[in-house]
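Table S2 (continued). Query chain:
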Amino acid sequence: MSPLKSRVVVITGSSRGIGRAIAGACARAGARVVISSRKTEGVALAVAELRASQLEAAGLAADAASPDDLRRLMDFAIKNYGAIDVWINNAGISSGYRSLQYMSPLEIKEVVDINLLGVLNSCRLLIPYFRERGGIILNLAGRGGKGNPAPYQTTYAATKAAVVSLTRSLAAENKCYKISINCIAPGMVDTDIFKDIATCPETESRLALMPVLLKAFASPMPDVERLAVKLCAQEPGKHTGMCYSAEKWTRYLRALAAVPEFIRVTRQVRRAKRL
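Corresponding output:
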């Protein structure tokens, strides 16, 4: 079965992490995949790995925060494969796990530029193109996307709530066209984003709980991959303005199983604070 046979799928931020996994899943489903991230070496490696598995892939280094780079990426995909069928706005950076006052104005700007303005600018480029031929835009949501509090991740959460909002608004603007504009909410996924997390004095000790939380609540990467392929295979315009979650009810069973370990690590953290 090749649900994405011959479809051209462009994925920003796809040299590693969730984006890289989605790229591999789409390629295995028959898509011609365009890899992109800010680092040339990472793009080249991801493309080489896919091609070594006899999968169709090309790549271009591009900064999702740059409208000019996004235009170059769009032109590159069309030049290489003749069209774009799906564009996935996956590129994003974390604001770490710290209070807002510990972030510099430059750090705040970088998170907003990549996580929010990058999505807006790519949609601005793609919508006129997709209005003529049809297409699918998938935006990656994240913690805070549902409007729930996300303490110590305020900047990141604000961008993800905005991404969900812009997805629904753009879908409503384009509901009379063969365009699907949807969100994927992968939930917590165990990737390298959780390595070397920037913290502040209020949160540094809490990082000891991160492995337990990932074990208890993280969405398995294959679940995220399957959801992405399913949404990429949809008929453009049939379903739009939706936010699809990769989280399953079984994570609550894992959470229950992790309670003893959570209690043990919490006690260790409290003891360390007293010392």
